[in-house]
Amino acid sequence: MQTVAIFGVGLMGGSFALALREAGYAGRIVGVSSPATIARAVERGVIDEGLPPAEAASRADLVFLAQPIGVIIETIGAIGSIVASVPRRPLVTDAGSTKSAIMAAAAGQMAGTLFVGGHPMAGKEARGVEAASASLFRGRVWGLTPARPEDLQQPQCREFVQWLERIGAVPLVLDAAEHDRIVALTSHLPQLASTALAATLAGRTSGTPAVHGPGLEDMTRLALSSFDIWADILASNRDNIAAALETYIAALESVHNAVVTSTNSDIRQLFERGSAFARPLRDASNRQPA
Fold first, then answer.
1. Residue 36: exposed, middle, or buried by beta-carbon count in 10 A (0-12, 13-18, 19+)?
2. DSSP letter string over 143-160?
3. What is the pLDDT of residues 219-239, one digit of tens each?
4. Residue 64, helix vs strand vs coil
């Protein structure tokens, strides 16, 4: 893997480049982004140079699409024929937060190429290459959704997975549809719950903004996320997110009814179930490498 082309040198793309460098990658890393972003990325040493999309795709051994979902799909259409014509058969992968729509686009517009869907389960509220960090993926699951299981046995894919492990990520292979169902519950629902909570409280605590504990800050952290990123996620996983919200709304209704009727046993069971789920998440985070 002599050349990596990163389309979208922001938080995810920039962090991937920095993580590769820290893990010992000595090849060339080129970027495709706006001129201003390319200038900042070169200045920080994140990439070696910026290139036009067609040139970057034709030079690369690994094409990493780290853009919003809609832009990833557009890029697949724009570079599909270019990548297919490269004799060395580069690997194309992505960092999109949903996978079914992206995999469908790749199947239709990158026929004959080696495309493996990807989703690093990591991130920050901050955006842009300035927020990029080599440690972003350490201890974090990196979902892989190949079109065919045998694709992962190709030499390009095996080398890519080895680099994922070197940067500290935890590769996990799963079906695209199952991925989208799961992340609707584990990622998209928490985002919407945090946003809804913050929006509900907006204007209702005026005059006493300091009357809160760290719990409120924890619960509203995700509300700082940009809608520009989430618009495509919500649109591309609508049915799964709707089902997750319905489940959550039903749980909130149960909590409401228990509070109104003072049914402490029901509320106790809810606390116990919640604690049983939440504690292993924190234990796993505490075991992650620094």
1. exposed
2. EEEESSGGGGGSHHHHHH
3. 999 999 889 889 999 999 999
4. strand
